[in-house]
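We now fix the convention by which a protein and its fold are recorded. The integers have meaning only within a learned vocabulary of local backbone shapes. A complete example follows; check for yourself that the lines match position by position.
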Amino acid sequence: MFKPIIVILGQTATGKSALAVKIARKVDGEIISADSRQVYKGLDIGTGKITEKEMKGTPHYLLDVADPKRKFTVAKYKNLAENKIKEIIARGKIPIICGGTGFYIDAVTRGIVFPEVPPNHALRKRLALVSDRVLMLKLQKLDPERAKNIDPRNKVRLIRAIEIAKALGKVPKITEVKPMYRFIKIGLYLPSDKLKKKIEKRVEKMFKDGLLKEIKKLKKAGISDKRLKELGFEYYKPTPEKVIQETLKYAKRQMTWFKRDKEIKWLDASKIQKVVLNKQVLRPLA
């Protein structure tokens, strides 16, 4: 029987990456990122991507695996993540999935099988003329569950979600295949006031570290303003105030998604140093 797979999840700015590294060093683990934007090359500062120094020699996977000019799908992520899990286990190590993209995490831990829906270019052309607000209203009617965890300003994702729902002729029914692994899910949270302060500090550091220079570099590489907007609010005409506000909204959507999963053991991130390696958390790995 395989050893359990650890999953570190939770809201942005709660210290998931640091915790994953700490646990990996304790249990001889290797880390698989579960972040829908950190898969892209060149999106480093704006996504809070872990640095080589912060990795402390721990292997990390599914970072910088996609060209930002092209959309990376959750189906692609699932395939790559499952292959990495097998490779890590074959080496006698423990896989640790770490990230805040609930859809990516569910794809692996729940064994979701995604319907293959080809692009409907005519539909996309029509929907491209519609505002993101109207697109969100359409998606809420077609697929209320998907609408709960989607960026309401990301037209590309909204259009794709609508495209899938319309192609299936009904609200998409998620098909699941029972995974062959057992997952230990550890969720990090912070009280709202502490989370707000952490986000404010992170955004301040983001601009100080050169977010605007990163955006210029992406533009120089041929990334259009339209694509930058699709890649997230940090990359389209960002200001500290705007990024803080949108990050708080995103954190709220993340928690809405994760709260549905009753398998998650929640830990207060502000007290994580005291509980991270206690027997209660790591006993299932024995």
User: Anything to note?
Assistant: The chain has two domains: 5-114+177-285, 121-168. Residues 86 and 95 are 9 Å apart (CA to CA). The two ends are 13 Å apart (CA to CA).
